[in-house]
Structure formats: structure tokens, C-alpha cells
Amino acid sequence: MKPVLLALMFLSEEHRAQMAQSFELVYAPDAAQAAAAIAAHGARITVVLTIGATGLSAAQIDALPNITLVCALGAGYENIAVAHAKARGIVVATGAGTNDDCVADHALGLLIAAVRGIPRLDQLTRQGVWRTALPLPPNVSHKRLGIIGLGTIGKKIAQRALGFDMQVGYHNRTARADVPHRYFADVTALADWADFLVVATPGGAGTQHLVNAAVLSALGPRGVVVNIARGSVIDTGALAAALREGRIAAAGLDVYESEPAPPAELIGLDNVVLTPHVAGWSPEAVQASVDRFLENARRHLAGEAPVSPL
After folding, report:
1. pLDDT at position 75
2. Burial of 147 from C-beta contacts in 10 A (0-12 / 13-18 / 19+)
3. DSSP alpha helices (H): ranges in the chain?
4. pLDDT at position 7, please?
5. Phi/psi of residue 196, each to 5°?
6. Lowest mean pLDDT: which of 18-27, 56-65, 75-84?
7. pLDDT at position 57 over 90
8. In whole numbers, what is the pLDDT of the chain averaged over residues?
9. Which residue out of 230, 247, 292, 300 is catalytically annotated?
10. pLDDT at residue 76, rounded to an integer
11. Active-site residue among 24, 88, 259, 295?
12. Residues 6+ apart with CB under 8 A from 122
């Protein structure tokens, strides 16, 4: 008999079929379906697949007495009760490294779109407005880029920024010895130095509203902030106020605190570019994430270490 897999996020029909080759799949992509699935199949489930935003709580873990593996489909795992799982001897693994290029590409796309005002220019062009009636949009090249969180994705964003002849600074909990970029121990100091700020840090309680009103004010009236990390890292109310009052110039957001609902405070602002948490989504990236999960699970069930354990 195939092991029973509980999947707690959206999966395409093709990827459900791919997983069904190795597992008896219990597909529960929302909270109500998850509760029903755990109630009906809890004792049979041995593997759980989730994402960082959805997670797997301690209570859910305790309702699954026979699980031995919990995997995050992507790199994030902020809402998985990792310590609780490990205390029960459950292996936890992620999809780290499978969508880094896609996220970094999207971050630069949001930055260019926000700095140059591309969505607004598109709308005005369709209305017949010509360039002589518009203010000049600034360069992206030769500016200072501050990155909050210089992990694997942050490093790839920095690599792309160098192609635009940008200076790169970053904030981490500690400085990295393997990069030449300027380190800032304080987020506000990084924002004060930078022209543009990209958020690439993990989510969770430790980074809640790390980008607040003071950080945004330090970024300044020509500054642009981009978030491809987690919506919780930026104080949405403070961001909306800073954008309305001209204390920063623009923002590009793939994530927001209200998701999947759009951020109501930002919808009416034409200096915000919004995308629906798709920075890590491409055919290549999602397939790599699914393949990584299946390899992590195959190794675990064969008594081996997964490819990307926590």
C-alpha cells in the first residue's frame, strides 16, 4: 500500500497526479478541508506537505499520530511548529533552493516597474497621454540597493543588481564573510543609505513589522520598497501613510498582510505595483519544488536523510 500524504496547499491536477504515483493523496488546500481531512484520515497520514504561510500547528501535529515527515513546498516554514515536530521525532524538510532564481527575477521586475512607474505609464499611454505631459521616471541603474535578508534569494537579488551597476548594502542578524557588500547592523541605517529597499528576510514573529514608519521615513521621498518575502515584515498602515504623504516614492509588493485578500489600504494608490504572491511561481520553479518534495520524501521513506532538511 502507498503511504498517505496530506497536502495542505493548492496543487495543479498534473502535480496531484504526479504525487499520486507515490502516495495515496489526501488533498486539503484550505483550512476547512484540512480540518475535515485530519478528522477523517489523521491516524493514516504519514507525510504532510504544506507551505510556510499555511504551516502545520502543534495541535495539528498531535492529531496525526503516525506522521514521520513534514515538508514545506517552498523555502519558507514560518508557520510550521518545527520544534514540536522535532520533539516528536518527526523529520522536517523544505524546498530551499528550488525557486530562488524565480523570486530574484520577480524582485527586480517589481523594482523596475515601481521605480519607472510602468503600470501607470501603460494606463496613461492607453488613454492617449504622451511623454511630454509626464514627469521623467528615474533610473534604476547606478543607485544604492539595500537588501533586508541576504540569504540565498537575497544574494541572487544582489547579483542581479550588480548587472545594473548598483551598489549593494544589506542587513542580516550577523554580517556574512562570503560577500563584498556593505553590512548594516541596523535596518533604519540601511534604509537611510539606500535608494531602494528589497525585503528578502524570512517571516515570523522575529521580523514582524521590521519595516516600520521610521524605516520608511529613513528611506526618503525618492525611495522605493519591494517585498518578495512575507507580508508581515512591512507595517501596511505605515506603508500606506508613507506613500500617500510622499515620504517614499513607490512600492512593489508580491506579499501583504491581508493575503489572499488584496491590501485595502493600498488599492487606490497609483504608486504601488501589486502581484498576488507569485514571485516563486513559474512552471520551472513549481516543478522543481514538487520534484524536491518527492525526492525528500523518497529518501526519508528509504531511511535516508532528505535533500534539504531543517
Report:
1. 87
2. buried
3. 13-20, 31-41, 58-62, 82-87, 100-116, 118-126, 152-162, 187-193, 213-219, 236-244, 283-301
4. 98
5. -130, 150
6. 75-84
7. yes
8. 96
9. 230
10. 87
11. 259
12. none
Q: Are 63 and 291 in contact (CB under 8 A)?
A: no
User: pLDDT tens digits for 68-111?
Assistant: 999 999 888 999 999 999 999 999 999 999 999 999 999 999 99
Question: 240-253: per-residue pLDDT in tens?
Answer: 999 999 999 999 99
- Which strands sit side by side in the sheet containing 144-148, from one edge to the other? 182-183, 167-171, 144-148, 196-199, 224-227, 250-253, 272-274
The predicted pLDDT at position 188 comes to 98
Residue 142, φ and ψ in degrees, nearest 5: 65, 25
What residue type is 220 in one-letter code? G
- With residue 21 as reference, give the H or E element that holds it: none
What DSSP designation does 256 have? -
120 is annotated as an active-site residue: no
Q: Is the per-residue pLDDT at 204 higher than 90?
A: no
3-state secondary structure of 123: helix
Active-site annotation holds for 265 = no
| Cα–Cα distance measured from residue 238 to residue 240, given in angstroms and rounded to the nearest whole number | 6
Which amino acid is located at 273 in the chain? V
Helix pair 283-301, 13-20: axis angle to 10 deg: 20
Task: Tell me the three state secondary structure of residue 127.
Answer: coil
Q: What is the mean pLDDT of residues 55-59?
A: 97
Residue with cell 504561510: 53
Is there a cis peptide before residue 260, judged by omega within 30 degrees of 0?
yes
Instruction: Say which of 41, 144, 277, 299 is annotated catalytic.
Output: 277
- State how far the Cα of 50 lies from the Cα of 281, in Å rounded to an integer: 15
Please report, as a single letter, which amino acid is at residue 98. T
Whether residue 259 lies in the annotated active site? yes
